[in-house]
Amino acid sequence: MKDCIFCKIINRELPAHIIYEDNHTLAFLDLHPDSEGHTLVIPKEHSEDFISTTLENIAFVNAAKKHVVRLLDAKLKPKGFNFISNNGAEAFQVVFHYHEHIVPKYVKTEGYIPSKNRVITKDNTQVYELLTK
């Protein structure tokens, strides 16, 4: 896709700190990291988000994530990782090219912190009934 920032990185039309690449994926450091080593892993084939991408691309991205995590773990020695994929503008997806975030954790209360701001209007029984009708 010609206006996609990530496609431009894949085509080397925009610079990036690429730390892993194979035939199907590319991994590069996030321009606005939540922690040292925050990496994005993307398929080279464009799709807008997780829902619209292929199962094959999901498998390629997950295999690449494993390589990247091993690299980050060996070189940066974090105490853990968060794996995040935002799907849609409401979920804070900014670049509409399917991608996965790998966010190394060094201190539990720093970097990416999942929200404790829960809003639940239906209990699990109600949700289950909606999903299984």
Automatic annotation (TrEMBL):
Domain of life: Bacteria
Motif Histidine triad motif positions after renumbering to this chain: 97-101
Gene Ontology molecular function, alphabetical: catalytic activity
Protein name, per record: HIT domain-containing protein
Residue positions of the active site: 99
GO BP of this protein: nucleotide metabolic process
SUPFAM superfamilies tied to this protein: HIT-like
Domain HIT: 5-112
InterPro entries per UniProt: HINT (IPR039384), Histidine_triad_HIT (IPR001310), HIT-like (IPR011146), HIT-like_sf (IPR036265)
